[in-house]
Amino acid sequence: MDPFFYNTIEQPAIAEFKDRGSKFLAYSFPVLSIEDCKKQLALLKKEHPKAVHHCLAYRIGIDGQTFRVSDDGEPAGSAGRPILGQIDSKQLTNIMVVVVRYFGGTLLGVPGLINAYKTTTSLTLQLSPIVQKAVEVPYALHFDYQQMNEVMMIVKQYNCSVVEQVAQLFVELKIGIPKHRLQEVINKIEDLQGVSYTTALIL
């Protein structure tokens, strides 16, 4: 994995694939947590109560270490793994794909299932524009409200993301600094009088 950038999707997408009467619907979602995944899966189960399987795979986190596959009653290894394989072939993270299957009466066998889940996932990923995002390091800035413009100029110039802002007489601003520009941003902040910073634990 690139230490400075990662690939993900920003928009959900849906694709359909049919084989011998069975219908497969693949849904791809951008997600940031396991909680996001659970919510999306619950919504799909509500939307497709008559589907026989809701198979899925997700990969989360900049390091991509958080992942899960589920065959949801299909033969072991015939659904979740092929879905994850397609996610990994595009080196994506912060993404979940759920494939909903309506059984058509004909057994497809394990090779047929692997092909169906792989193909449906591939189709939905073709419809989801892939975006490259900078790996960010979380920081909290503290400064006088009158310095807001100076600080925000640096935030915008270096494409930092604003995570949280608490503004009274003094401002606490939580930002994500692109890792590949970290030292430049810190140098700029240190040039400003009266602005202090600490590393934040989480974005």
Quote the average pLDDT.
94
Number of strands: 11
Strand content: 35-45%
Helix/strand class: alpha+beta
SSE order in H/E notation?
A: EEEHEEHEHEEHEEHE
Percent range for helical residues?
Answer: 25-40%
Rounded Rg: 22 Å
Largest sheet: 5 strands, antiparallel
Overall, the morphology is elongated
How far apart are the first and last residues' alpha carbons, in Å? Answer: 20 Å
Task: State the fourth-level CATH superfamily of the largest domain.
Answer: Impact, N-terminal domain
Give me the side-by-side strand order of the main sheet. Answer: 2-3-6-4-5
Count of DSSP-assigned helices: 5
| CATH C-level of the largest domain | Alpha Beta
What is the domain total for the residues? Answer: 2
- By oligomeric state, this entry counts as single chain
What is the third-level CATH name, the topology of the largest domain?
Ribosomal Protein S5, domain 2
CATH architecture field of the largest domain? 2-Layer Sandwich
Helices and strands, with pairings:
Blueprint: E1 5-9, E2 13-19, E3 22-30, H1 34-47, E4 53-60, E5 66-70, H2 80-89, E6 95-102, H3 109-127, E7 130-134, E8 136-144, H4 148-157, E9 161-167, E10 170-178, H5 182-191, E11 196-199
Antiparallel strand pairs: 1-7, 2-3, 3-6, 4-5, 4-6, 8-10, 8-11, 9-10
Helix pairs in contact: 2-3
